[in-house]
Design goal:
Helices cover 1% and strands 47% of the residues. With 404 residues, the protein is mainly beta. The chain is globular. It starts with 8 loop residues before the first helix and ends in a 5-residue tail after the last strand.
Length: 404
Amino acid sequence: MKYIYYVSISVLLCFSPARADWSQWLGPDRTGISTETGFLKTWPKDGPDVLWKKNLGVGFSGISVADGRVFTMFAEGDDEFVVCLNEESGDEIWRFRTGGMFEEWQGGDVPRSQPTVDGKRVYVLGAEGTLYALKAENGDTTWTVDLVDGLGGRFPRFGFSTSPLVEGDLLFLEAATRNGTFLALRRNDGKVAWASQKDVASYSSPIAVDLAGARQVIYFSGQAVVGLSPADGSLYWRYPWKTSYDLNIATPILVPPDQVFISSGYDHGAALLRIEAGSDGFSATRVWESRRMKNHFGTSVLVGDYLYGFDNAILKCIEARTGKEQWKHRGYGKGALIYADGHLLLMSDNGRLALAKATPEGFEERAGAQVLSGRSWTMPTLANGRVFVRDMRKIVCLDLRSGG
């Protein structure tokens, strides 16, 4: 079936020629920050205009948007899928079965990994541990890697959850295989380029940053945060960080020029590490450690010198370099957030979407509306003037450039 897309004159007037896609976990740079500006700062009572809604199966998978298409994952019946939708209408273009429903004693509610779109391909990791490279156009398989049967991977308690990272010719992910927990695969054929360290795998996703004079891939396992060489996986530095049940979930954050922020829930807390290069290699030393910011699953965002995030069910702002608490605000539960144009875009754990000024001086909600119902543990996606959110059963696309 062929799909033809019509773009109205009003859309052409509202959007610049350059697209503002959100093609992977935490957005273009894996920082949770969008460069979009000019969207509505006040909303009607019922919230921004709803462009479309789509019923899905269960899951926590994030939403990626690229080249007019929307990608996410869900489980339905005994099966798990990645689905591709039309960005304009929400119509399904294709779906692909990525495995069976992952069984976990607390009930599952998987999948959790977010598809990563890179040009004409989308990389998808199923909760049972099969990694797929699919054609974004039609979902056809380019290559497949079975992390369990093929590479000897061990199942994390809640299923494979890391979101693949593409950089250069490599694809990075965390999966405790027989040869190492931190992997780099060749993105063209899925062959293992290197495997490093024998950590307990957790649920975080890697980032690639310039740090202490070197390009590094930073992973957060169930035991430690580590910096590796992207070329060969050699260990640059390691900082132990053990959390109950190995549940290190939030993504590490670069605090320029030479520091890394990490945070975990389960009554653990947060730390800021300084990474330095010396004659004997790299070192990681603690700048501060505090229980003031315990990210359960939602990664914080760094805006200027301040971190905004959820200390379990309390929204907080802390000074990045000292850990000093600036303010705290209740009312969003264990939510998730991203940042754009001076504002936080917040999603509560019960489906309320809100917009708030991001300043260290205090909290000010500018707009809010109940847009979903039920548990919402998925980060909002902001792309091309639209916000995409989901709960356990439904995905909604709202127009942030009209309706006010």
